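ESCALATION

Customer reports they have been waiting on this structure for their group meeting. Please prioritize. Original submission:
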Amino acid sequence: MADDTTGQPAGNRRIDRVLSADYLKGLSARSLEEVRAMRADAEQEEVDLSYLRRLLQGRVDILRAELARRAGTSTSSLVEDLPKILADDGRGGARGMGRHAALEPSRADAHRRYVEALVADVELSDVAALPVEELERALGLFEREERDVSDQRRRVQQVMDACTAEIARRYRDGEADVSQLLRERS
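Update from on-call: job pushed to the front of the queue and completed.
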């Protein structure tokens, strides 16, 4: 069976490797380069999951705004409110881990196609034309998917943290040499 976002067989995807039960097994016995590579894989996956999550949240916000408009709690049109709906500050305070990511999503197009295919029969370019039942069905689907992606993202962050802690331990305990790292970066 192929994955919807990569076309790769399930089990061969980076997410499957990073979240496998044995990914961190024997971490302290692995080479420093291998631990760094594992952390890099987890970091890239976290960036991809964050991107996918933002795509899902945007659609959730659009659907909620349209349902609110129909319920009479908003009088402006969806098009007028779109900048406010999609603004990061419209969602409340940040709930993330405060991680800085210098990476770009590696599968942005695949993630967009995946999100669009979730509700292929609901055309979000004209939500005002859709019946409330369709909007609610699509909203429920996007919300469930966002929760699943958020859960995966938290688990990937735990893997990143474990790898980072192992690398830090090696430097702290003298198993790795900071001067070697600086020479590698020069």
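Sent to customer with the following note: The chain has one domain: 35-93+103-185.
Escalation resolved.
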